[in-house]
């Protein structure tokens, strides 16, 4: 996974200082209720499609772009499920980041689920209860949030 150019330019100025970044995660279900997952090339975990917003890019557009770039599936964002700040992360090169993740529910518009970039080893649709291993803890957390959102209709925020 290549680091976006805008982050490299920021890092030239701030070094390894903690950087807050806007991120997205997508919950994409097909008509059968299966969930779109990708196996990450950096850690081997199966995860929901996710990514970082480019400067000035609307978050819903970021979400749709990231899903298509990673999986080949075209989506429409239909709801904001939650906004969540991650714990601080440290990378092997010393860089530190926190992500403000916008978790969206998406509707499939078209495309085929395929490995569409170098960020994934595999991509596929999986029924709940039949998820592949190793599964990222992010998936479990996000599915719980999605269930709460479905029950209440209210976007979830960090408290």
TrEMBL record:
Gene3D superfamilies: Nucleoside Triphosphate Pyrophosphohydrolase. Residues 19-148 form the Nudix hydrolase domain. CDD domains: NUDIX_Hydrolase. The keyword Hydrolase applies. Keywords: Hydrolase. PROSITE patterns: NUDIX, NUDIX_BOX. InterPro entries: NUDIX_hydrolase-like_dom_sf, NUDIX_hydrolase_CS, NUDIX_hydrolase_dom. Its cofactor is Mg(2+). The keyword Hydrolase applies. This is 8-oxo-dGTP pyrophosphatase MutT (NUDIX family). The lineage of its organism: Bacteria, Bacillati, Actinomycetota, Actinomycetes, Kineosporiales.
């Amino acid at each position: 996974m290549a680091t976006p150019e805008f982050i490299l330019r920021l890092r030239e100025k701030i070094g390894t200082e903690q950087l807050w970044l806007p991120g997205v995660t997508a919950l994409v279900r097909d008509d059968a209720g299966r969930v779109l997952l990708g196996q990450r090339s950096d850690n081997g975990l199966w995860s929901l499609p996710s990514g970082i917003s480019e400067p000035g890019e609307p978050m819903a557009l970021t979400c749709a772009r990231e899903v298509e770039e990673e999986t080949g599936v075209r989506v429409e964002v239909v709801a904001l499920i939650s906004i969540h700040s991650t714990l601080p992360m440290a990378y092997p090169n010393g860089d530190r980041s926190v992500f403000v993740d916008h978790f969206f529910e998406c509707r499939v518009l078209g495309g085929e689920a395929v490995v569409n970039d170098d960020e994934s080893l595999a991509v596929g649709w999986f029924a709940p209860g039949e998820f592949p291993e190793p599964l990222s803890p992010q998936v479990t957390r996000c599915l719980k949030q999605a269930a709460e959102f479905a029950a209440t209709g209210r976007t979830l925020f960090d408290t």
